[in-house]
Amino acid sequence: MTGRDGPTRSFDHVEAWVFDLDNTLYPADCNLFAQIDRRMGEFIANAFGIPLDEAQGLRQAYYYEHGTTLAGLVRLHDVPPEDFLDYVHDIDLSAVAPCPELGAALAALPGRKFIFTNGSRKHAEAIVERLGVTGQFADIFDIHALGYIYPKPTREAYDRFVSTHDVRPRSAAMFDDLPHNLETAHAIGMTTVLVHGLTPHPEHQAMAGWTALPAHIHHRTEALPSFLAEIGAGLTVADQAKPSSPSAKQAQFCLI
Question: Is residue 252 part of a domain?
């Protein structure tokens, strides 16, 4: 497992395992980003009657100014969010292959598992089905639950998530492929894991030049299933090493 130089946070305190969806639960080299990117541009071009290159410019501007393209469209143009989400997530998912290793690793983790995504529940459910990990998650906390205009990494998004599911941040681990999404997770006390992938996304490209992990990232992995399996194995060993509870007779003796 890859972590920061020097001591890294362990996972024996974690009760809630929180996963981003895209480029996190499935490998970034599936490159669904390219399809979604194109569909967002097409939606804006069709909605406003503008050329595709101009629409892509708006898409990027809204992403950087509002956290997601959708948040900008809703705030500034009152675009029906479900229309946008249905259109941009109508993509070919054949690149996402079943991953029994991920399913086994998730099942071995103690506590609750969640998906926390700026995408839609419908999209998340389709991905989960493709991966073969249906039934592993306590909930999918999606952009609808975030009111469409409070995406990660806003504090409002994290506050809504932890409040809804009674999650104690210091007993939670957050997995995400975008470093800026982990900044707020770290700030509220979560253990953070960067799932390092490579796509045309500017943040992914910038990571190629890193010589050390930022302070808000406690662990990094390029292979989520094996990383989780190693965590699960370590937690099992630690649990087995704990002293067993004294018998009733031993307990009486201890009180004498």
Answer: no
